[in-house]
Amino acid sequence: MPRPELRVAAALHKAIATVTEDIEALHFNTAIARLMELVNLLTPLEKRPRSVLETFVLLLSPLAPHIAEEMWAKLGHANTLAYEPWPVADPGLVNAAVELQEYPVQINGKLRARVMAAPRLGSSDLLVVVKADPDVQRLLANQTVVKEIAVAGRLVNFVVKG
38: closest CA among 87, 111, 83, 79? Predict the structure, then answer.
């Protein structure tokens, strides 16, 4: 699993690249979707890097100019953001973006958790990653695992007794 700072930097630069392309192609809905993905990544963090927030506001400004100006002022800027340069994506970080895949975890056939892990994991590696997850460990505590089923690229199911 990549370090959180690297994940945030990679996601930010990927957002810069895709939002820039989408706005140039007048695909505003997909630009907004990419910004929402960035917000979803930032929301659970205790501290959000100021530089990431400033770049986010700049990317938001063509789509929601009034709220972006207010956010820019809240970030402590006295001047309007209209004269700020458009952010440029670092190709090294865009290409270094480590994508994670969400794997559903079932217990006795019922969805109980979701674990983020690298895509294209083999069944045995996927099982190791899922078993290491604290939520899954908590769910399996005081249970007798009868069978473990890991379908590569899809899901993990535990058949338990107890």
Answer: 87
